[in-house]
Each structure stands twice: as structure tokens, then as C-alpha cells.
Batch of 3 targets.
Target 1
Amino acid sequence: MEHLAHCDALEREIGQFVSVAKDADLLSEVPACPGWDVAKLIRHQGTVHRWADWHVQNLAQERAAKSDIVIETPEVVDFVAWLADGGAALVATLRATDPEAPMWAWGADQHVAFWSRRQAHETAIHRADLELALGRTPSIEPSLAIDGIDELLANIPYAAYFAPNTAKLVGNGESIHLHCTDSHGEWTITLGQAGFSWEHAHTKCDVAVRARADQLLLLLVNRLAPSDPRFEIFGDSSLLEFWLKNSAL
């Protein structure tokens, strides 16, 4: 997926998030985010949209200090509209900005395009968090879910400063295979002594997981458990559990 496709996906995900949020009790717990209720989830997502918007507008060359960005949080009655307004502003900024413009990002791609991709996926996952909190079964379109897995694997090596357990993703050649059942997507992850590597490949691995693309993504971001019957798991399940425990961002 390219920058404008990510902008389109972000816009769709914001629309879905807002639509679901209109039916939600703001005081309902969000099990995927321990300690959060729906109001805190919305406040977090709306704040992140505005935080990313500021960085892109300013083509920031380093992460801004909290004191550099003024973000007004809404009154309770305005939460959903506040989320929609911030999301729309972010999409407009991203569409109007050169995706190849260099800027700070916490991941692999140090350009504006990092943020259209990152925000599309972050919004999709938090929209899924909201749906799970309401007892619904979230769905993410296959192309976006496949890109989300790619993005996650590409960014994990850069996340150690806020997710220190990622440094433990080493080994002696142990391997994990992920296979989509609803689209042409598969990955092989290999744990090496200096870190992990990954590729789009079909190989025999120590453990293999089969499911829909969006289910695999939600597994990798610890929103669904390996024990969920939607997953077919073959081989060393403890290796999969090791990966999920230490790759969480």
C-alpha cells in the first residue's frame, strides 16, 4: 500500500471508529487495554491523531516534547465529535504533505509516509479494541491487515526504547510461519543470535499458524489469544507464546 492508499484507509477507519463509538457507553471497560474505559480509549486515539498531525505539519526532525504541543481534551458529551474532528484534520494534513519529505518517526521509515501507514494501523487496532469491548467481532479488510503485519515486523527492531522485551527476540534459528486463509499472505520469521529476520515465504517452521489475515494481525498485537479456536496452530506453541510475549508494542 502507498501513502494515499494509507490515507484512504485511515479515513475509513476513523469513520468506522466514530460510528461504533456513537453506540458505546463511555464508562464500559476495554479489556484489550487494561485499566481503560471507552472514554479513555477515545481520548487516547484522538490525542494521538492530533499529536501525529502536529509532527507532520511541522515536518518535525525530532520527537516533540509534551510542552510543545497543546491538545485540548473534550467535554464528555463531545468525545465522539472531537475524535472525528481530529481524525479529519490528520487525514487532510497527510494528503497535503509530500510523503517522501524527511521527518522524525520512531520506526524504520523516516518520512511522512511512515505516519499515514502508522496511523491507519493504529486506528484500525483501536477500533477493533472498541468493538471487542462491545462484544462484537471486529473485521479488518485483508489488504490492510496484511500491510499491518508487514509494518509491525518492520518496526519491532526500532521499538526497544519503549518496548524493551523486543530485545529478547533472539534465538538459534527457531522459526515461525504465518499463513492467511483468506488471501495470499504468508510470512516466515526466524530468530537469530543477532535478532530476528522475516520474509514472505512458505517454509517448514517450528510452529505454524493459519487464520484470516485480520485474525493473524490481531493475534500479533495481542488482541486475540492463540487458544482462540479461529487459529490452527501446528508445532511448538511455546515458541509462538514466546514471540507474542516479547514482541508486544
Target 2
Amino acid sequence: MKEISKIEQIFDYLSPPVLSAVLNIPESELCSLQEIRLRLGRKLTVTAKSKEYFLSSCGTLMLSAQNAVDVTSQDIRFTYQRALKNSVHSFGREITAGYVTISGGSRIGFCGSAVLDPNNSFCVGNVKDISCINIRISREIIGCADELFESMFSSAHNLLIAGPPSSGKTTLLRDLTRRLGDIYTVSLIDERNEIASVFAAEPQNDIGAKTDVFTSYNRFEGIMTAVRVMSPVYLICDEIGSRDDFKALEYAVNSGVKLVATCHSASIKDVCKKPVIRKLIKLGAFDSIVQLGTGRNCGRIIDKTNLSKRPEAVALC
């Protein structure tokens, strides 16, 4: 099974005690594993089906911390050193960003004590004393965007996907990138390498045959460069909302590029409360907005607005 294959790719990054506990998880539950969390001096937890559980040495997922595996400094050090290939100095950018993408597309995130850049007190120059690690298992849900694609992209379309955290925005955007990228020239601005999951310059996820990936660019530079040098039909980016995003996306729209993007929002009504999104809507950057739900509705479209057919919705913004 592909889900098991993705999980097997992280085994080399788990210390023996942690690996032993994970291997004891029943296969039916192992397939649904999303995260493995190591917190120094506390208990081992895993996330499955969007719920976090404590994990026992015999592979039992529990709501209580009693009898769960203890996380030691050796466990933290093992995973951190494996992620950085025992060469901390070669991963300066990844350390300050707080994560490393590994083969297969999974991501090892970590945090600890920040050391600020002496030349810029707003920027992290290094991270020491790593205390928490989160291994996020890469998931592709091939086909999850099929219905959305068929209903909205029979002709060129600008789409904004809204939803709260953990609503499935990135998963849907990844599969939509795959569909669009098999037909059009697409520039994917993958600031945190969550969509393509590039490893050794090669996308680990299927993002379409005609998709050019801008990995770890900040959105402003990525968007401006893409429009200037890659001539995309579609520009795709995740979690827009900053002032710099507006400047770059305004440039893209005025250059005739179609947009597909996501933003954090609890409802379509809330979308218009975001100054940058409101300005983009008034600019005509989006034809439609779809809202994703959470919980049982995770990944499902619970509301949609066609802005081209509802001028009053644009006026409200």
C-alpha cells in the first residue's frame, strides 16, 4: 500500500525505542498515521485521522499518557542528526526555517531555543537545544480535486480556496496543481515545500507534467520571478495574505496570469475581512471562492461563491 510505503520512508529517522513502538501499531491504524511527535522529557504521541494520541511501546494509541513511551534526549538527537545527515553546517537554511524535507516528501520539523541573527533581531540565525520534533508524513490524495476541477475549470478560472487550519487546503491544492499542471504551464510557488515536497531537486509528489516549482522562495520573489521568466498560464501559491503578496499578485493579474491560491479563513464572510484578500477580490483576481470545513467535513467544500455572478459579494468587500 502506498500509505505504508510513505511511512516506511521515515523509519530510518526514528530511534530504536520509537521505531519499535511505531512498528507495533496495527497496520489498519498505521495507514492513517499523519504525525509522530517527540517532546523531550515527555511522552511520545502520534496523530491519526486528525487526532493526537499517546503511544505505548506495544503500539497502542491511547488518550491517557499513562504507559506511553518516554521521549529522551537520545531519541531527539537521533532523529535530528539523521535529518541533517550528521552535518549541521550544511543545513543552515533548513535549521533557521525549522524543518527538513526527506526522501519521499515527508517533513521533519523541530524547535528549540532560537539564536537571533546579530544583524537582524527579527530573524532567527540558528536554533539550539532542540526540544521538540514533529515528523509529518507526506500524504497525496490523488483525485481529491477531481470534482472541483471538473466543475470549475472547463475554461480558465481564478480560484481562492479558503479554510481554517487543518481543513485540507494544501492537500486539495496539491491535487489541483496536478490536474492543472497536466494541461497548462503552471508556476508553483512552494514557499515551505509542502506541495511538491522537493528532495534533491526532484518533486516527490505528482504536481503535473507542465509544472515549474519554485521551492523555498518567499512568495513575493517567487511570484515576480515566475511571471517574468516562466510565462505561466496559472500561478499557484499557498496561504496568501501579506502586503507583499498583494503587490506580486497584482503584477501577475495585470500580466494576464490566472491564479489559484489558498488563505486561512473560518468562512467566506471572513475572507472579505482580510485587507489583502479584499483588495485582490476588488482587483478581479478571483472568479470564485470555495470554503472548506473541519472535523467530519475536513477537505470538503461546505460553501462556494461565484464572484462573477454575484457582484453584490464583491461590493461587500
Target 3
Amino acid sequence: MAHTILHKASDRFEIISDRGSSYFSFSFGDKYREDRLGFGALRVINDDVIFPGEGFGSHPHDNMEIISIVQEGALTHKDSAGNEGQATPDKLQIISAGSGIFHSEYNTSTSHVCRILQIWVYPNVLNQPPSYRQSEYTYPSPLNQWQLLLEPGLIHQDAWFSLGSIGKGATLSYQWMNPSNGVYAFVIDGSVEVEGHHLGSKDAIGITGIKEVSFHAETQVELLIMEVPMIDPYAPL
């Protein structure tokens, strides 16, 4: 039997500043709720708009897998290990912070915003050497099929991320890669029906207890599926 948890877009944390806007699906920084500490190994989903010429100066991370999905514009990365790169809507950015790294992220455009989803996942092994990589994918995503963005080996976790674009009226099923995992589905755009719930843009649903789930598109919809272990992040590895 499926167990679900529904997170509506309107219930996210919000920060508006001169730098841009951020919407947090889970507790982040000084925005905190006891019932919003993540979903299994999934710790952060930040939906950010970065204004032209703005960004995040050099700051530290450790023992976290950080995935940036650019929806519009480009995100320029530099870090203390000497890595530099630019993520775009067809190029995923993956940082394994490991034993510790400093990095900065900027929208270097002078005229266009950068829209990103930044996602953090707890690793399954600690204090590894930090790394930076990019992974290319097809954008826009092919219609009515899942496109695998992330799998074990690209990050230090038994996790799979898939992107799906579903045409209005169509149904697309997702089968778990690991039946003991949970699935967190985030609606990037459009509306969809799943497990009796109607989800709109930026709504999300966490699903456990089953091995397959169907998504019925009420409009053309773009979905991000994050399949992660349902770990207790505070338990020792």
C-alpha cells in the first residue's frame, strides 16, 4: 500500500532579496520546521532565481552531494579544488563535497536571469575527496518517457534522478530502481494526478511502500523524480 506525503508549492519557505528569489521545499538556513527536514536521503530542494550579475560568493560545504539543474540561463561554478564550469539547461552540475570544499556560483549574464533547482542528498560514505563533474542530457526532455539524469556512481548514494515530460492526457508509469527506496516527485511545470492527488507547478509528493506509480498529465507536465534511500540522516553511517 502506498504511503504519501504532499508538499504544496504555497507551503514552501520564501526569500526575496536583491540577489533574486528562493523557495525552499525543506528547512534550510534560518527557515525551519520540524516536519520539513527532508525526505530520506533527500535534504534540500531549493528553487532559485538568480538575477543578472548576482550569485553566491565562496562558501563551504562538506559531506553532501549537491546537484544543480538549470532551467534557464547559465550557472558559473568555481571551487577551492581548482574546478571551473558552467551548468546550462542541458548540462547537470554535480558536486561531491566530501571532506570539504569552498565554492562560488554566479549568474554571469548581464541581461538574463538564471533559474535553477539545487538539490542536496546525504552521501552513503563520509569524507571522500571532493569532486566536481558535469553530465549532459537532452533538453527539452523527450515526450512521454523518463530520461535518467543521475544514478549511483555519479554521486555517493543509492539514488536515481529522472526527468519526464508527459503530454496532456497521457499517463507515464515509474518503476522503482530499488524497491526499498522512496520516490519524491517534484512538478517543475504543469499539472498531474498521482495516487489520487492533483499536483500543480512546484507541488511535490513523497511516495513509499510501492514499487511502481503512474502519473496522469492533466496538462503537459514536466516532472523530476528523485528516488532515494529512506535513511535516517542523523543515524551514524
